[in-house]
Amino acid sequence: MFWADEFTDKIIKSGKYRPFHVDDMKTPSGRIHVGALRGVVVHDLIYQALLKRKVKAVYTWVYNDMDPMDAFPHYLPKSFKKHMGEPLYKIPSPEKGYRSLAECYALQFKKVFNSLGVNPEIIWSHELYASGKMDKIIRTALDKVEKIRQLYHDVSGYDKPKNWYPYQVICPKCGKVGSTIVTAWDGKVVSFECKKDLVTWAEGCGNKGRIEPRGENGKLMWKVDWAAHWKTIGITVEASGKDHMSKGGSHDLSSAICEQVFNYPTPFAFSYEWFLAKGGAKMSSSKGVGVSAVEISRTLPPEILKFLMVKTNYRQAIIFDPANNESILKLFDDYDKTQAGKDLPRFRDV
Predict the structure, then answer these.
(1) Dist. CA 339–CA 97, nearest whole Å
(2) In sequence order, what DSSP letters do the residues of 130-197 get, joined into one string?
(3) CATH number of the domain to which 268 belongs
(4) Rounded mean pLDDT of 242-261?
């Protein structure tokens, strides 16, 4: 039995993950690397296996475009450095035809996974915040900040100071979110400061003020934000790369926050291995490390690219060098053997 079928049977038989809502998320901070396609395809396999069992299921893909630009891809013009710390959806597009940097890289990546026959519903995080759907859960996080601080300590060993809050304001003066901290919450408004030296990659303007924590005024910090997305969207199935799933890591902490602060069950989860760049390095969209999905889609036909993502068990790393002709020839040969019914499960059944 194919691994996706095994997981799907477990999901259905447990009775704990209804309605069946499969989801994955990505921050469009640069040209999205080919490794991110593994997550897209892994989740689609679960989604398709659910549909094959004649149950109603939904597959969404969240673009976390409220996140700040916190690393600078080498291919961007130096003029973009002034946008460090700004929300990705507010940064101008480096290419014509897009509303923002986030949309540019997100839609280019979407075009690639659509070509593989993968078509999740797209959710833009900034639109989720702007709609007001996150307002209630933001207030919950601020009201229960002491519990969240305790979970940071108990689960991950981090000691957050008593004046720490899991929310960052988009500074009304300079437009940056990566340089702000909340210093107080009175139940109606937060007090905030845009600090010049909060992080090394962005300089705040020093502005201080008070603002309501709602809509597009700011965002939850990402481990709290992750759990908040699960509940707000209604996600019940979401896998993650192995870096998030280590003991005491981001998934453990977000799960604890989800259940103990937001009173929502953690989605069904499992970890999958990375797609490694030449030499075994982990890829990074924000730093521009690794081959982009768009680049590799120009080299490999869609059916071969999708095969590359599914031929290796999810628990094993995919190591592939698109600049190596022997690697490409072997990939095509493996695909032909599979189509002929040799070695691997028939690709058309995946």
Answers:
(1) 39
(2) HTTTTHHHHHHHHHTHHHHHHHHHHHH-----TT--SEEE--TTT--STTEEEEEE-SS-EEEEE-TT
(3) 3.40.50.620
(4) 94
Residue 261 has which token pair? Answer: 């602060």
Lateral strand order in the sheet of 20-26: 20-26, 57-63, 121-124
pLDDT > 60? residue 343: no
The Cα 89–Cα 220 span in angstroms is 16
Domain enclosing residue 223, as ranges: 3-159+219-349
Number of domains in the chain: 1
Phi, psi of 154 (to 5 degrees): -70, -40
Give yes or no for a contact between 232 and 137, defined as CB atoms under 8 angstroms apart: yes
User: Residue 315's closest CA among 274, 256, 261, 255?
Assistant: 274
2 vs 331: CA distance, rounded Å: 20
pLDDT digits (tens, 9 = 90+) for 36-47: 999 999 999 999
pTM score of the predicted model: 0.93
Strand 275-276 relative to strand 318-319: parallel, antiparallel, unpaired?
parallel
Number of H helices, E strands in the chain: 11, 12
